[in-house]
Amino acid sequence: MSSPTRNPRSTDSALAVAAEDHALVSVPTVERKSGYELSLSPISVATALVIFAIAGFTVVLAGFTVGMIVGVLVAGFAVLLGKALGRMAFETGMSSTITSRFFGFGFMGSSIGSVIFAFMILGFLAMESALLYQGTLLMFDLPDSWPVRILLYGLMTLAWIALAVFGLKLALRASAALTVVTLLVTIYMLIHIYVIQGADPMDVFTYGGVVPGGLWPKFEAAIGVMGATAGTIALVTTDFARYCRTRRDVTVLAASGPITQNVVMTVLGSLVVIGGMPEVIDHLMAHDPELSQEAAGAAGGTFVMENTGAFFVIFAGWMGFVTIYAAQAKAQAINAYSGSLSLVNLIDSLTGWKPGRAAMVVIGNVIALLMIAAGILEQFAAYLAYLGSMTLGMCGVMIADYYLVRRTRYDRATHRVEKWNWAGVITLVLSAAVGTVLMATDVFALGFLVSFALALAAYPALRSLLPEGTGTTFVASEEAVEEAV
Questions:
Q1: Can you say how many angstroms the Cα of residue 215 is from the centroid of all Cα atoms in its chain?
Q2: 420-470 confidence digits (pLDDT tens)
């Protein structure tokens, strides 16, 4: 009996479908998944190296108690955002930026959201690669030379492309395995700090932070670092909500990332960072004998945010090195995946050309390398804050359109999509600009929250002045979104 032969064309077709991963079509019902399975995607992002940095730096600034209170508040806010946006993606079956064609921005207007989302997610891709690079240099005592940069960044880029290019299934599988590795080595480091070395965890729980003054300065500092990421995790959640089977699955998915990022990681990040700080301070003083204990402590706090990979390597050696790569590989797969979806919408909405998602994975990684070359790591804190104004402004417009203007009414057969929803575009530009100016001029450090509130309030008013069809035309339903075959 002869064995069946494999059809090469069938294999190629299956790989092509996996690579495209419904980038420009609605996810069919048969491919929908449970919220628990999908939750691996935001959890992967929420346990990344940069989140260790944000959580640890928040506690360094504001202390453990204030950091935890802010973590719970930001988590609650992000869950509400993720659930609100996720329901829209569940209804359309589309990614966050393509969903914005239907709610808030219009077909071509969604390109603005794509630019914001791509800037956000590829910025994280860039920052986290740069953090890994710094940790690798320290681990192997390598010089920061062009040959080393080309080698390390080249290998990392190839790895992120390989993990992201074949769609959701591979990304989730990689995330599951590497999340387990991350948690196991983190637990090992905690045992090393608090059992083997005998550090007292109460020193962490009673830590008061370095920000001087009363409660409000500490609270403002913590919100300023952590709060701007609420829109980020909500938009990442929305990209995967298109795969949910039910609205309950949307809720499970929306809760998983923010709770992990802002509550679990605040506890783990503070235990690791505060507990590992003495070794980092000793390392800094050994390399600079003129550095005082107080100055080394201040430098160590900055080290957490700007050089997290090296921080882990200094106090945990090989285990720290394994941690940073396990934490990053899964998150970078999701970052590259979501970034490619955004770039696909950007090109399609502006030009009508439908690029392959696999090609956009490659282009997204190239953009991330350019951002590294431009020095994004040195502007980390400012990047997070200004990013928050844009992402929360975008979230506010979409939520206002779907819930306040349309009252959650959506029927794909009758829904009309404008080329430009000028009310949404104007609201986004205005709200993001106001929040950015408030922060840039030091008038209000939490300007990104103003951007969100202003978007919610301004969009319904502008929509009444600029109703559907004002200054634009409508696109055919099959042009706005294709049905999956």
A1: 29
A2: 999 999 999 999 999 999 998 989 888 999 999 999 999 999 999 999 999
Structure tokens at 270: 């503070």
Q: Measure the CA–CA gap between 341 and 333, rounded to whole angstroms.
A: 13
Q: Residue ranges per domain, the chain? A: 42-480
Structure tokens at 148: 């080393």
pLDDT tens-place string over residues 67-77: 999 999 999 99
Specify the pTM: 0.83
Q: 325: Cβ–Cβ under 8 A, 6 or more apart, which residues?
A: 132
Residues with Cβ < 8 Å from 90, sequence gap 6 or more? 241, 242, 244, 247, 250
Return the CATH number of 42-480, one of 1.10.4160.10, 3.30.70.2750, 1.10.10.10, 1.10.510.10: 1.10.4160.10
In angstroms, the Cα distances linking 46 to 177, 239, 269 are 15, 15, 12
Bridging pattern class, strands 474-475 and 417-418? antiparallel
pLDDT in tens, 16-41: 444 445 555 677 778 888 988 889 88
